[in-house]
Structures are given as C-alpha cells and as structure tokens.
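A common beginner's mistake is to predict each chain separately and then try to dock the pieces by hand. The better habit, illustrated here, is to supply every component at once so that their relative placement is modeled jointly.
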Amino acid sequence: MSDQLSETFAALADPTRREIVARLAVVGEATVNELAEPFAMTVQAVSKHLKVLEKAGLIVRGRKAQSRPCRLSDNPLGGVVDWIEIHRRRTEDRFDRFDQLLQKTLQPQEGDAS
Amino acid sequence: MSTTARTSDLSVTAAPNSHEIAFTRTFDAPRDAVYALYTDADAIPQWWGPRRFRTVVDELDLRVGGRWRFLNIDSDDNEYGFHGVFHEITPGERIVQTFEFEGAPGHVSLETLSFGDDADGRTRLTGTSVCQSVEARDAMISSGMEGGMAETFDRLEALLAGS
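With all components supplied together, the output reads:
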C-alpha cells in the first residue's frame, strides 16, 4: 500500500470522519459548525477530524471565508476504489431485485390450485 | 475498464474515452413478462433505487413525449429526483428515454433499453447510457447520486475489517 493510500484508509478508519465525508457527499459544502452539529463533540474536536481528512486529500477547505467551508476533493477516493466496480454492484443489486420480483410474478398464485 | 458479474450474468462496460455505459443481463422469463414488470409503476419502488432509499414513482407516462420522474428518499426525508422524457416506446422491444439527475441539472444522458430473445426462452435486457461527454460519463459512474458513496463506505468498511 502506498503512503497516500495508507493515509486515506487511516482517515476513513474513524466512523466520525466517514460520517463527515458521507455528509459532504450529500450536501456539497459545509462549515465546521454545520458539520459539528449532529455530533456530540466540540467544534474543536471536529476541526481535528477535518485536518486529518484534508491531509489525506479527501476534502478541501475554502481559503477566503473565515468559516473555511469544506467540500470533498474532486476525486476523493480515486486511488482506493474502482468506480466501475461500484457502478456494477449497484446495477447488479437493482436487477437482482428485479429478477426476484420477476420470478415471483411467473409463479402461479398460491391458493390457485384447488 | 469492464467487469463481469459473479453471481448473475450481468456485465457492465464503460470503455475508456467513451461517452457510454452499457450493461446486459439475462432473465429466465419471456420477453413480455420482463417488459411488463420493467414498466410496472407499482413494482418500480421495489427494485429501482438503492436499498437505503425509498423509491417513489412521481410520474410514469409511458408514451412518446411522456415524462417519467422517480424520487429516492433517504431516512432523513431528503429527496433526490430523477426524471426524463420517453422518445421511443415499442412495447416488449425497446424503450428510449432521457435521464437527468435533478442534483446535477443539465447533464442529460440518453438511455436505450432493449428486450431481446435469448436461448432457452430467456430474455436478454441490454441497456446503454450515452452521456454528453466522457467527463460527464465518468462523473455519472463515480457520483454518489444513487447512494454510491454509502456503498463505497460499506466496501471500505469491509476492507478495513479484513486488514
């Protein structure tokens, strides 16, 4: 494992940091205060987590505003996951469910036979 | 950049430098049954969206020029909308439609679904999505718009658990 990869994994080994990344994936951009809100921890503690995520290249922070809003970097997990594999799994999951329903519709209804 | 499924016969391809994502999968059912279920508004919530979302069919006007709109709703009631317009409806054979994620408006892809006969009475479903650019295609594959991020983290967790 390369050092960058180790750093990415280490950064994501913490559930709070994963939650932060997952929230940024949904909301796009958020300040430290906004990110701290759902957690039972201080803004300072969340700030430390953000530093780890920033160092690992997972997030970037604005330079201008005092609040320094955070967002995911352009290719946050680029070296870690194979996107096509994730897309394939998503498609597979969808059509496995479709297939299960399909087989159900093809079966004679229970109680039909008398 | 292509992979083949392990459990089903699904194959998904996304060739480098291409605007296209394609998949193919067979089903042990007649073509009409596959088409009927695929276009059944009551069934769509049970298979269309990722598991962690509730899927709601807001519109499904299955005719040329008709609109479709589905919502994925997460446990915090956040809604993610997807919509498009049907360009071809050939029952039992082909559906051509546009696809747009409302979280990334203006990125429209053209989807073609073909229902074909396969060996042993099976049906082969083939789908292609043509995006507006290679970049848009890659963004679509990598985006978290369909819960991909959550699945990414499930996978990362599994990897971490095994490390």
